[in-house]
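Page 37, continued from 36.
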């Protein structure tokens, strides 16, 4: 069982930056692929970014490519999402997710955090 705890959300003006963090309880954190998803009010949860267990592979949704960066520190059991040039449409609850093994698909993550709110004002 893996427990995930996100932090770093908040209110920021358009054009600003935030860094989200997600700390995992897994003893073998380096065995897990990690991802970030988000859900805006009235919308389905959507994929944002994902990173392989080693950090060697990353994937991004087209809507955030070039603005967001996912990274991980396996020594700290933590994955990060650096968000720059934020837009009002980035407003959502952001969720950290994990799955054991290779990254592969991004629709089969099976461990989820409780989410952290990001609000971007115009």
């Amino acid at each position: 069982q893996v427990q995930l705890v996100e932090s770093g959300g908040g209110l920021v003006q358009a054009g600003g930056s935030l860094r989200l963090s997600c700390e995992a309880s897994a003893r073998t954190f380096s065995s897990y692929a990690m991802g970030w998803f988000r859900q805006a009010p009235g919308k389905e949860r959507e994929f944002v970014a994902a990173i392989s267990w080693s950090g060697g592979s990353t994937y991004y949704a087209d809507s955030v490519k070039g603005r967001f960066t996912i990274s991980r520190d396996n020594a700290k059991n933590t994955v990060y999402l650096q968000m720059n040039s934020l837009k009002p449409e980035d407003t959502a609850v952001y969720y950290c997710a994990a799955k054991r093994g290779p990254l592969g698909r991004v629709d089969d993550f099976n461990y989820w955090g409780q989410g952290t709110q990001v609000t971007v004002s115009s």
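Residues 5 and 58 are 21 Å apart (CA to CA). Flag for discussion at group meeting. The mean pLDDT is 96.
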